[in-house]
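Reviewers of the previous submission asked for a worked example of the structure-prediction workflow described in the proposal, so we include one complete record here. The input consisted solely of the amino acid sequence. No template or homolog information was supplied to the procedure at any stage.
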Amino acid sequence: MSDLRKTFGLCVRALRRRQNLTQEALAEISGLSLDMIAKIEGGSSGASFNTIEHLSQALSVEPAGLFKIDIDDRRFGSELNNLFARLAALSDDDLIWVKQLLDVALRPRGRR
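From that input alone, the workflow returned the following structure tokens.
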């Protein structure tokens, strides 16, 4: 279950950032607390159907869009598809190494 929470949180964060919203702005638009937004994005809290509905309306996506990143979305462009193709060619061990590298590189640096 924690993997689903983590995926959900990462998707919410990605959608929020693509719309240039802060956590504070998303909290205000969605009617949720800043603490709840932070917990959802951090994967430490799940979301009720009501919360999912509020977030999907605030982010202008279908509720299912909060659980997956649509790689066919035109906003991603060819660079992301190129990256996916390169990652798909890696071994499992290499994928683990890349994930660890990304975890360090994308660690929050005082920005939400």
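Residues 100 and 106 are 10 Å apart (CA to CA). We consider this example representative of the routine output the project will generate in years two and three.
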